[in-house]
Design a protein that fits this description.
With about 850 residues, this protein is α/β, with parallel strands linked by helices. The chain contains 34 helices and 24 strands. It has three domains: about 100 residues, no CATH class; about 375 residues, Glycogen Phosphorylase B (Rossmann fold, 3-Layer(aba) Sandwich), CATH 3.40.50; about 250 residues, Glycogen Phosphorylase B (Rossmann fold, 3-Layer(aba) Sandwich), CATH 3.40.50. Bound molecules: pyridoxal-5'-phosphate (PLP).
C-alpha cells in the first residue's frame, strides 16, 4: 500500500460508520474539541461531541458532491429565502446518514442517554412559521432528490423569540441560539462580499466612450458566508445552505480612527453588524422598517455576487448565467434580486440592457405565498431613493419598458396600466415588490390549487391576462424524514414492518401498500397503541412544563400554528366555551372527553392575537379547575411552539384543527404534518385542506364552513355579524359568556375588544361558520366512540398522504419550473 492509500484508509476510519469508528470519534471530539472526559461532560458537551462526529461524516460527502456538481457543470437551484426554519439538525442528519441505530448503541455502551443528547440541541429558529419551515423542508428534499442546490439566507444572531406565558399572557424572550456555539456551521471568513447602501448614482463615460451609470454608496458592509451541509436521505448528495452575516469591512475603522473619530468608527461598526442581528418576528411585512429592507437587499446582493463569482471562476463569463442557475424567490422578500442582478450585470459587468434583462428574466422564478392585502409588500419610493438610489433608477426603467408592453397589449386601458405599474402612485408613491418579482421572473407559482386559482383571478389577475403561460401551481409539501421518521419513530417502525420495507421514506406514495391492512383489527390495535404512546409521551412532557399532564385516553384536539385572526383560533375557543355551557346545563351529558391543546406565537405587536392567547389561558383556568366539567374538557396551552415542540405535538394529535376562513390560508403545511401522523382533520375548504380531503377521501375528513366563493358572495352582499348574533341563541350564549367576565375574574372589559370585534365587524366570519363547525364537532365526538372506525380513518389518513411529501413538490419545481435534472453524487466514483 502506498502512503497515499494509507492516509486515505486512515481518513476512512476517522469518518467510518461502524460502531467502533463512531465510538472513537465521539470520545475524540469530546476530548480534543472541548477538553472534556466522559465523567465531567455536561449535556451540551455530549451533544456537541455527537454533532461534530456526525458532521465529520458529512464532510467527505459534501466536498465530493460539490466537486461532482462542478465537474459536470450542473445546473444549480438557488433558493433565496429570508427565512429558514430548520429545526434541530442532529437527529435528522443521523437519519439521513443511516446511522441512528448504531449511534444509539454507541451511546448505550458508553452509559449515555441517547434521547437526552438529541434533546440538548437548541434549534436555529431562523423563521416565523410556515414560509420558513417550507424552505427547510425543500432543502431536505432537494438533497434527497439529488438536485444540485444552494439555499441562501440570513444568519440572524437572534431568531424568532422564545415564548413564555406569564399570567396567561405571551411574553417574548430573546432567542440566544448561538450562545453555546453552532457545531453545524462552518464560517468562511475569506468568502465575503461588500454590500452598499445609500449614496447616489452617477453617469460617466467608459474607456470605449460608452455612457454608463454607476452607484456610489455612502455605506458599505461586508457579508460573510456561514455554510451548513444539508444531507439527503438514502443518497450521498450533500447540498449547501449558505447564510450571510453582516460585518463592518476589515479596513473599516482605520479611516475614522486616524481623524480621531473613535466613537464614530465604533458606531458605524455596530450599525453594520445590526443588519443580520435579528429576525423580524412578524408573519407579514412591517410597514416602513428600513432595517428590514436593508436585510433583504443585504442577503440578495451577497447571494448574487456569490453566484456570479462561481460562474466566472468556472466559465470566465456570464452569458450563460441563466443556464447555470435557477433562482427561486421565496415570496417577495428576495424580489430585489431582479433589480440587483440587473445592476450587477449592467454596471459591474458592462452588459447591454437587453442582454442583462434576458439573463435576469430567465434566471428568476417567484413563489407567491399570500392573498391577504396587508401582506403584499410595498416600500416607499422615498426610502428606496435614500437607501438604494441606483436600484430605483433600474426599477423605473424596467417599469417604463414593461408598461409600454402593457399599453400595446391592452390598448387604451389606462386603468390597467396604473394597476400593473411597479409603482403605486396613490397616496405616497410605493414600489410594489410582487410586481417587481412577477415582471422579472420566468415563472410565478401559487402554493396550493385554490390559492393559485385565486392568485390568477384576484391579486395577479392582470398579470395572468398578460402572461398566462407564466403561472403554475406547486402544492406545498413537508419532509417525511423529519415529520414521521424523526418525530414519530414508533409509527415509522410500524409502517416499515407492515409494508415489509422502508421505501416509503424516500417515496411516500409507497404508503399505499399499507392500505389493504386498514381493515385489519390487529394493525388497528397496534396503530392505536402507537398513537396512545405518543400522547402519553406528550402528556408527560406537558406535565413537567405546565404542571398538568392530560389523560392520554381523552381525544387530543390540537390547533398549533401562528396566532392570527384569519386562522381563527377564536372559532375553536367559541366552541369550547359553548361546550362548557352545555355541560353546565346538563351535567350528565354524553360527551367524549377531550383535551384541547393550543400552541403558537403571536407577533409581538399584534394585539388581537395576543388577546386570543390570554383568552385561551383564561378559559383553561376556569374549565380545568371546575370538577363539574374537567372530566369532559381540558384546555391547555403549550408554550413556545417551534419545530422541536411541533415534533412532540404532531404524533400525539387525534384531531387537527385547520379552520381558517376559506380563501385566506395559501396552503398550510401543518395540516399535512398532522395527517401524516394519523390525525383526522376538521377543516374548511381552504388551501391544501381541499387537496388533503380529496386524497384521504371525503368520508375521512370533517368538513365544515363556507367555500371561498360563498365568502366572496356574502361579503359582497354585506355581511352582518350582528344579525347572526341576535338570531342565533347558541352563538350569543357563547359570546356573552366571554364578555360576562366569567373568565376574567369579573372583569367585563378585558375581552371586550375581541367580542365587540366579532359582533360588529368579524372580518374573518367566525360567526358565519360557527354553527356548521359546532355540528361537525358533534360528529367528531360520535365518531371517536367507534374506535375501529376511527382507527381505520386514521390509518387511511396516513396511507394517502403520498402527495404531500416535499419530494413531490421539488420534483414538480424541477421538471416544470427549473428544468433541472437530478445528479447523483456517488461516492464510489473517482474522487
Ligand atoms: C409547520 C409549521 C408551521 C406552519 O403551520 P400552519 O398550520 O401551516 O400555519 C408553523 N410553525 C412551525 C414551527 C411549523 O413546524
Amino acid at each position: 500500500m502506498s502512503t497515499a492509500d494509507n492516509r486515505l484508509d486512515e481518513e476512512r476510519t476517522r469518518t467510518g460508520l461502524s460502531k467502533d469508528a463512531l465510538n472513537r470519534a465521539f470520545l475524540d471530539n469530546l476530548f480534543y474539541i472541548q477538553g472534556r472526559s466522559l465523567e465531567v461532560a455536561t449535556d451540551n458537551n455530549l451533544y456537541q461531541a455527537a454533532a461534530y462526529t456526525v458532521r465529520d461524516r458529512m464532510l467527505e460527502r459534501w466536498i465530493k458532491s460539490a466537486r461532482i456538481y462542478k465537474d459536470q457543470s450542473a445546473r444549480t437551484v438557488c433558493y433565496l429565502s429570508a427565512e429558514f426554519l430548520l429545526g434541530p439538525h442532529l437527529a435528522n442528519n443521523m437519519i439521513n446518514l443511516g446511522i441512528t441505530e448504531v449511534a444509539r448503541e454507541v451511546a448505550e455502551e458508553l452509559g449515555l442517554d441517547f434521547e437526552r443528547i438529541i434533546e440538548s440541541e437548541e434549534e436555529p429558529g431562523l423563521g416565523n412559521g410556515g414560509l420558513g419551515r417550507l424552505a427547510a423542508c425543500y432543502m431536505d428534499s432537494l438533497a434527497t432528490t439529488q438536485i444540485p442546490a444552494i439555499g441562501y439566507g440570513i444568519r440572524y444572531e437572534f431568531g424568532i423569540f422564545d415564548q413564555v406565558i406569564v399570567d396567561g399572557w405571551q411574553v417574548e424572550k430573546g432567542d440566544t441560539w448561538l450562545r453555546n456555539g453552532n457545531p453545524w456551521e462552518i464560517m468562511r471568513p475569506k468568502l465575503a462580499f461588500p454590500v452598499g447602501f445609500g449614496g447616489y448614482s452617477e453617469a460617466y463615460t467608459d474607456e470605449h466612450g460608452v455612457p454608463r451609470q454607476r452607484w456610489r454608496p455612502n455605506l458599505v458592509v461586508n457579508g460573510v458566508a456561514y455554510d451548513t451541509a444539508i444531507m439527503g436521505y438514502g443518497v450521498t448528495n450533500v447540498n449547501l445552505l449558505r447564510l450571510w452575516k453582516s460585518e463592518a469591512p476589515e479596513s473599516f475603522n482605520f479611516g475614522a480612527f486616524n481623524v480621531g473619530d473613535y466613537y464614530g468608527a465604533v458606531h458605524a461598526k455596530i450599525e453594520a453588524e445590526t443588519i443580520s442581528k435579528v429576525l423580524y418576528p412578524n408573519d407579514e411585512p412591517v410597514a416602513g422598517k428600513e432595517l428590514r429592507l436593508k436585510q433583504q437587499f443585504f442577503f440578495v446582493s451577497c447571494s448574487l455576487q456569490d453566484m456570479i463569482r462561481l460562474e466566472l471562476r468556472h466559465t470566465g463569463h456570464l452569458e450563460r448565467f441563466h443556464h447555470k442557475y435557477a433562482i427561486q424567490l421565496n415570496d417577495t422578500h428576495p424580489s430585489l434580486a431582479v433589480a440587483e442582478l440587473m445592476r450587477l450585470l449592467l454596471d459591474d459587468h458592462l452588459m447591454t440592457w437587453d442582454q442583462a434583462w434576458e439573463i435576469t428574466r430567465n434566471s428568476c422564478h417567484f413563489t407567491n405565498h399570500t392573498l391577504l392585502p396587508e401582506a403584499l409588500e410595498t416600500w416607499s419610493v422615498e426610502l428606496f431613493e435614500c437607501l438604494l438610489p441606483r436600484h430605483l433608477e433600474i426599477i423605473y426603467e424596467i417599469n417604463r419598458r414593461f408598461l409600454d408592453e402593457v399599453r400595446v397589449h391592452f390598448l387604451g386601458d389606462d386603468e390597467r396600466v396604473a394597476r400593473m405599474s411597479l409603482i403605486d402612485e396613490q397616496g405616497g408613491r410605493r414600489v410594489r415588490m410582487a410586481h417587481l418579482a412577477a415582471v422579472g421572473s420566468k415563472a410565478i407559482n401559487g402554493v396550493a390549487e385554490l390559492h393559485t386559482e385565486l392568485l390568477k383571478s384576484t391579486v395577479m389577475k392582470d398579470f395572468n391576462d398578460l402572461w398566462p403561460e407564466r403561472f403554475h401551481n406547486v402544492t406545498n409539501g413537508v419532509t417525511p424524514r423529519r415529520f414521521i421518521v424523526a418525530s414519530n419513530p414508533e409509527l415509522a417502525a410500524l409502517i416499515t414492518e407492515t409494508c415489509g420495507n422502508d421505501r416509503w421514506v424516500q417515496d411516500l406514495e409507497c404508503l399505499r401498500d399499507l392500505e389493504p391492512h386498514a381493515e385489519d383489527h390487529a394493525l388497528q390495535q397496534r396503530w392505536r397503541e402507537v398513537k396512545t404512546n405518543a400522547k402519553r409521551k406528550l402528556s408527560n412532557w406537558l406535565g413537567e412544563r405546565t404542571g398538568f399532564a392530560p389523560d392520554p385516553e381523552t381525544l387530543f384536539d390540537v390547533q398549533a400554528k401562528r396566532f392570527h385572526e384569519y386562522k381563527r383560533q377564536h372559532l375553536n375557543l367559541l366552541h369550547i366555551v359553548w361546550l362548557y355551557e352545555q355541560i353546565k346545563q346538563r351535567p350528565n351529558i354524553d360527551l367524549t372527553p377531550r383535551t384541547f391543546i393550543f400552541g403558537g406565537k403571536a407577533a409581538p405587536g399584534y394585539f388581537m392575537a395576543k388577546l386570543m392567547i390570554k383568552l385561551i389561558n383564561a378559559v383553561g383556568e376556569v374549565i380545568n379547575t371546575d370538577p363539574q366539567v374537567n372530566g369532559y374538557l381540558r384546555v391547555l396551552f403549550m408554550p413556545d411552539f417551534n419545530v422541536k415542540n411541533g415534533q412532540r405535538l404532531y404524533p400525539a394529535a387525534d384531531l387537527s384543527e385547520q379552520i381558517s376562513l376559506a380563501g385566506k390560508e395559501a396552503s398550510g403545511t401543518g395540516n399535512m404534518k398532522f395527517s401524516m401522523n394519523g390525525a383526522l382533520t376538521i377543516g374548511t375548504l381552504d388551501g391544501a385542506n381541499i387537496e388533503i380531503r380529496d386524497e384521504v377521501g371525503h368520508e375521512n375528513f370533517f368538513l365544515f364552513g363556507m367555500t371561498a366563493a360563498e365568502v366572496q358572495q356574502q361579503q359582497a352582499a354585506g355581511y352582518e355579524p350582528w344579525e347572526l348574533y341576535q338570531r342565533d341563541e347558541q352563538l350569543r350564549a357563547a359570546v356573552d359568556l366571554i364578555s360576562s367576565g366569567l373568565f376574567s375574574h369579573g372583569d367585563t372589559e378585558l375581552f371586550r375588544p375581541l367580542t365587540e370585534n366579532l359582533i360588529h365587524s368579524d372580518p374573518f366570519m367566525v360567526l358565519a361558520d360557527f354553527n356548521d363547525y359546532r355540528e361537525r364537532q358533534q360528529e367528531v365526538d360520535h365518531a371517536y366512540k367507534d374506535r375501529h372506525h376511527w382507527n381505520r380513518m386514521s390509518i387511511l389518513n396516513t396511507t394517502r398522504m403520498g402527495k404531500f411529501s416535499s419530494d413531490r413538490s421539488i420534483k414538480e419545481y424541477a421538471e416544470r419550473i427549473w428544468q433541472v435534472t437530478p445528479m447523483s453524487a456517488d461516492l464510489s466514483s473517482p474522487f
